Amino acid sequence: MNGNFDEVNRQLEGLIEKELPERALKFQLKVAGDAIDKVMKITPVLDGLLRFNWQASVYGPIDEVRAGSDLQGDATAEECKATLKAQLHPYGTAYLSNPTPYAEVIEHGGYPKTVKRGTRIRSAERRQKRRGLLNRSAEAREAFLLAGETADYEIRSAGGFSKRAPQGMVGVTVLELQHYFERD
User: Fold this and answer.
1) What pTM does this model have?
2) Has residue 103 got a pLDDT over 80?
3) Which residue has the higher pLDDT, 4 or 125?
4) Is residue 14 part of a domain?
C-alpha cells in the first residue's frame, strides 16, 4: 500500500519542480504580452518617440531614453516581448518602463489646467494650402518657411490630462487585465 503513495508523491514532486514553473512562465508571458500590446495601442503618438521608448526588463525599470521612432508601436511591442521571453524566469518580475520626461505627465496628468497656446505642430502641406503658398514660387515658399511664420498650435490636453490618453496608459491597462486574476 505504501508503494502507491510513493509513486503519487514522486509524480507530484515532478509536477511541482517542472510543470508548474513552466505553466507559470507561460502565464506570465501571456499577461505581459497582452499588457504590452494594450499599452502600446493607447500610447498617444506625435512623432513616435513615446511609443519607441517603452522598454521591457527583468532587472528593474530602464531610465535611459532611446533616440528613434515607432509610429505604429508594433516593432517596439515585439522587441519588449522578445526581451521578456529571453530573460524572464518563472515567478520573476517583469518591468515595462518609459523614461521619456512626458510619459509620467501623460500617465498621471500634469499639463497646465489652462492651456495658452498648445503644442506646436508641423503639417507643412496643410499650412501651405491654408496660406496659399502652393501657388507661389519655390523661393517664396522657402523664404516664408525660413521666416518662422508657419507655427501652428494645437491644444492636446484638457484639465491637465492628454486628450489622446485621458486615463493614462498603464493604469487603465492594469484595470483591463484584472480578469486574468479573478476567481470564478
Assistant:
1) 0.71
2) yes
3) 4
4) no
